[in-house]
Amino acid sequence: NPAPTTDSLSLYQTMFSPEIPKCAILACVYGFVAIPMAADVQSRVVARVITGEISLPHAKEQMRWMEQRIAASPMRSTQCLTDDTFLQELEALADYRPQDAVIAAAPPEPEAFEPCEEMKDSPEWKKTMKISKSSSMELSDVGKKLLMNAFKDTTPKEAYDLWAETYDNDSFGETGFGFDSPNICASITAGYLSNMSPVSGEKLIRLLDVGCGTGMLTRLVRERLANGMNGMVDVKGFDLSEKMLEIARRDEGLLSDVVCHSLSDTPWPYADASFDVAMCNGVLIYIDDNFGGVMDEFARVLRPGGYAVLMIREDNYDNWGEHMDRLEKERAWRLMECTEPRDNFLNAANDEGEAIVWYRMYSFQRL
Length: 367
Prior knowledge:
- By secondary structure, this protein is of the alpha/beta class.
- It has helices spanning about 5-15, 35-50, 60-70, 85-95, 125-130, 140-145, 155-170, 180-195, 215-225, 225-230, 240-250, 290-300, 315-330, and strands at about 115, 130, 205-210, 235-240, 255-260, 275-280, 300-315, 335-340, 340-345, 350, 360-365.
- α2 crosses α4 (about 85-95) and α8 (about 180-195) crosses α9 (about 215-225).
- The protein is globular and about 65 Å long.
- Mean pLDDT is about 75; it is low at about 1-35, about 75-85, about 95-115 and about 125-135.
């Protein structure tokens, strides 16, 4: 085989992400036979790191170690990381003893679900959902209709215009849906912002809230930032519902500017490389065309080194996956993080007590 090109190291470094807080590559295994053992070893190392029993080296030290290993390899490739010596070192770190493997106890059975009183007589509700006994979910009339898909003939803009005044309470109040994804999106976004400083010549870090609605996602991000950091972050947003934007404008200082604009209408009204971070939660499900063009816009408006944090429902992945992958192949960005599937409606389930909507959060870094 021809010798690996000089791009081998840079290619590996796009997969190695020491800038992610509290994260590091522990092992990279080629060969299906080794995968089960390596997975077991890695899980033990991760558990010891999480509990504080051991610490990982600083990211710079890890990068230096990786470069030294590659330089010492006759193949000048990352395959040097899969040799027996490395795996033995990892086993020692994990205190690996196969005979000690323990099968985890089965999780408890989910609580029974039943309709709440307000919706008990609704045939649509009986067909589709039940509400947990542990939840006292009380929605606005608009929220109930949306939950039961009663606005089938309305556009997303019309539905959200109707929902604007009660959206925040229905979504985030104690008796609301129990939306999970906004909190996860806000935490990931705040983590990236907290490790940033304004680029040269700029005074502020720039955040774009894509499909910002009432501004709740931006509010959740600001709640997670230190007081001093909040003053350094300038947030702009856009949404197709003018009624939702009216709510956002009431909170002075939350977003510096909001624009009524549809995601699918590309290009978006922003210059190239004009933001450090772009976040988008619960909106991409409403796009029914121009998937590639929309995904390209996330990359276009980000400066090199910036981040996109995207919530994508599992039942909507097929519309977006190929375009996210294409941008990676084009070296426009690299995948930094992908969560496990998560339940997006913590206070609701179907007749079998199962989650209604599953989603993952994806993070990309602009190259």
